[in-house]
Write a structure and sequence with these properties.
Helix content: 10-25%
Number of strands: 11
Protein name: Chemotaxis protein CheW
Structural class: alpha+beta
Organism: Desulfonema magnum
CATH architecture: Beta Barrel
InterPro entries: CheW, CheW-like_dom_sf, CheW-lke_dom
Strand content: 35-45%
GO biological process, one term: signal transduction
Number of domains: 1
Shape: globular
Strand order of the largest sheet: 8-1-2-11-10-9
CATH class: Mainly Beta
Radius of gyration: 16 Å
Largest sheet: 6 strands, mixed
CATH superfamily: CheA-289, Domain 4
CATH topology: OB fold (Dihydrolipoamide Acetyltransferase, E2P)
Length: 168
């Protein structure tokens, strides 16, 4: 079975997420900071009357923020309700998104790839600067490698960090 993967850069590293999880890519960002929020939680924004929680993926993945902000975009994720049909049709497995709209701040958009499931390799056990649980797999695209993120695990880490910060 083939999948489409939205790819994007954080720094010089190419990442991807399943396109079925992406609602849209948004360019114009006016983010309202949340007092005493963890560093990865940039704030909230109004997207056509809906509140979006904005998460900085660089901070979540322990990476330095990009200094060139001109290419930055928000990858707006779908909600649990919006992906329900894909789960019911077995197009998505083991994906759990929340009821709220979440946007991942990324450094630069790249492309959409179509790959077969067999082309997605397991993550190597020796990945140093990333928590290997957040990596669903690795995709070879010519000389480039795409790190396919497990969005469910990333969101769990974000929510756990927010709860820990709240309890301190």
């Amino acid at each position: 079975m083939s999948r489409q993967i939205t790819t994007f850069f954080l720094g010089n590293t190419l990442f991807g997420v399943d396109i079925l999880l992406v609602k849209e890519v948004y360019r114009h960002m006016t983010v309202n900071p949340i007092p005493n929020a963890p560093n990865h939680l940039l704030g909230l924004m109004n997207l056509r009357g809906r509140v979006v929680t904005v998460i900085d993926l660089n901070v979540c993945l322990n990476r330095l923020p990009e200094t060139n902000t001109g290419d930055r975009r928000l990858l707006i994720l779908k909600t649990r309700e919006e992906i329900k049909k894909y789960i019911n049709n077995n197009q998505l497995n083991d994906v759990f998104l929340g009821e709220d709209i979440v946007g991942f701040l990324i450094d630069k958009m790249d492309d959409v790839l179509t790959v077969e499931n067999e082309e997605i390799l397991p993550p190597p056990p020796n990945i140093a600067d990333l928590d290997e649980d957040i990596i669903e797999g690795i995709i070879k695209q010519g000389k480039r490698l795409v790190i396919l993120l497990d969005v469910t695990v990333v969101l769990e880490l974000v929510m756990n960090a927010a709860v820990e910060a709240e309890n301190q």
